[in-house]
Amino acid sequence: MKKPPNAVDTPPAAAGQSYTPSLSRTLGVGGNVLITLSSISPASSVFILGGAALTAFGTGVFWGFLIAGIVSILIAFCYAELASAYPVAGGDYSLVSRALGPAFGVATFLISLVSLPLIIAVFALGVADYLGVAIAGLSSQQTALVVVVICTVTACFNIRANAWLTGVFLFIEMAALALLAVLGLIHIERPVTTLFDPQTLDPATGGLAPLAIAGLMIAVTQGIFSYNGYGGAVYFAEETKNPSRAVAKAVLWSAGITVASELIPLTAILLGASSQEALFGSELPVEAFLADRAGDAVTLFVLLAVAFAIINAIIAIALQAGRLLYSAARDRALPEPLAARLRWVSPKGQSPVIATSVMGLIAFLACFVPLDVLLTATGSTLSFSYLFIALAAVNHRRRDRTRPGYRMPWWPLPPLVCIAALALVFVISFLDPAQWLSLGISVGFVVAGFTYYYLYLKPRSGTHLLLLDAVSEEDSR
């Protein structure tokens, strides 16, 4: 097959050989953080996931999201150390492949290959709900299809242009979160001590009742999912200047800002709501709080801001998805006829256009799948990705003690706490029959990844899955 122009054709590597940079290395720490935070979309997390958590867990949201924030920072330490040692595009797949082993890496790749486009579809199908406050009669599916196309085309542009664009939208959504925090803190209705006793709405009495420990643990898992995305900084390692230092900083800054920008508004809402019973009983608690404290006009503006925040997140995730597929193609983790096309980088924008477009096409098709099916298919994948990252951090420190780069504090506490927390998540999921399908699908992805590696890639180890070293520090400048 004739290869497209500018395809990266990397021969089998000698030890220590690194990739020749092909992407546009124009991002600083700030630009990386802007795109990463955009993919997390703290505003949509607060309104959608935070709102659902307020209804289900009441004041337990404070403790659940606080504990989840601590766990997320510890996971971020693992990401930062691995990203510093292996600053290669491809996100979790690249880190796990190099630090834990190619079989785990391929399983991680398959999880991300499926989950990223499905997450884009989930976000896109939710855009109409928020644009609908200003434009009546929008179809969720038709709106989603248009949004996916626009966002995919945008993600094919130069990375620096995307950083500026996502930064503008990010400023708008952070302003909306700041407004929520201010409204809660200037209308405080109860002391902080009321948060120390987790309580939720009792449907039988209409009053507050203590939240069970099991419910609190589920609130923690909801918080971890809400904060998810700070590891996305790794996808842009080859487009970030001085990556062995800058990407670690971008991960930690993204994690810290995310936790603060979600936990503070949610805490302010708990303290500033006129009635906690009414808040927890509302179908859309955050919107109800906003309408009560700011009025309908401000609420309309903020909900439109959330719509743009979701679109912003789709652009950022599309950027990540394209770099995942590009990195795997460059590693020859795919059959060569496919890999030769997917590792093409546009000469002008220095962007993996074909890989990004393919992932966008998958997301486009996923918009025709029922939303509950999409949610089920992506439900437990995050836990496996985090588990592999934590295990990779342990194995990296055990195997490569002399490798230069960032070293996480309190070693080995961060990865061990993460592994323990994730083990608890798996136990809770296993004990809840409602989670069995989601858990089973995720296990299926992992098994399929290991099967693909051992049956296809390992027998072709001389020509496939060539995990070259990170880009040299000289090339990174």
Automatic annotation (TrEMBL):
Keyword Protein biosynthesis among UniProt keywords: no
Pfam families noted in UniProt: AA_permease_2
Subcellular location: Cell membrane
GO molecular function, one term: transmembrane transporter activity
Any one annotated GO CC term: plasma membrane
UniProt key word Transferase: no
TM ranges: 33-54, 60-82, 103-125, 131-157, 164-188, 208-230, 251-274, 294-319, 351-371, 377-396, 408-430, 436-455
UniProt keywords, alphabetically: Cell membrane, Membrane, Transmembrane, Transmembrane helix
Membrane association type: Multi-pass membrane protein
PANTHER family, A to Z: AMINO ACID TRANSPORTER-RELATED, MEMBRANE PROTEIN
Protein name: Amino acid transporter
Lineage: Bacteria, Bacillati, Actinomycetota, Actinomycetes, Micrococcales
